[in-house]
Specification:
With 143 residues, the chain is an alpha+beta fold. Helices cover 42% and strands 22% of the residues. It has one domain (2-133): Chemotaxis protein chec (3-Layer(aba) Sandwich). The chain has a six-stranded antiparallel sheet.
Length: 143
């Protein structure tokens, strides 16, 4: 499970160093793709295959399902981290997420998310109150 918040920097070639605690899990390959709210999702290869298999279950007669799959899969790039645990985020995905040098990587359970740090901080500030207000609605009995 991916947890926590990390603040690596992109290097001048658009490469990201994976947080050390996730390098072994991603060593065999990963997929980076568009996420929601202009973030990027990073999946270990086996988890991405599971997610893609789930998507294939959606009816192709559904325009919403087709649109989602097109956006999600057309932006996907399979990468293999080097020995230092870094991989290149393709330019089109860096542009989509507005990434420059300062990025925030968050653990989101089955995936990592990569955000421009300023955008992440703004998002977190805007959603913290609703997080507190909706805990019982989202996960009944949690607290």
């Amino acid at each position: 499970m991916f947890l926590g918040t990390h603040t690596p920097r992109l290097d001048e070639k658009g490469r990201l160093f994976l947080p050390a605690k996730y390098r072994e899990r991603m060593a065999g390959g990963l997929v980076v793709t568009r996420g929601q709210e202009r973030s990027l999702f990073i999946y270990p290869m086996d988890e991405f295959v599971r997610v893609a298999d789930q998507m294939r279950q959606a009816p192709t007669t559904s325009k919403v399902a087709r649109d989602y799959m097109r956006v999600f899969l057309s932006g996907a790039s399979d990468e293999i981290p080097d020995k230092q645990g870094r991989f290149t985020i393709p330019a089109n995905l860096r542009q989509y997420a507005g990434l420059d040098r300062e990025v925030t990587v968050i653990g989101a359970g089955s995936r990592l998310e990569v955000w421009d740090s300023a955008v992440w901080n703004s998002y977190l500030e805007q959603t913290e109150q609703s997080f507190a207000d909706t805990a019982e609605e989202v996960i009944p009995g949690l607290f």
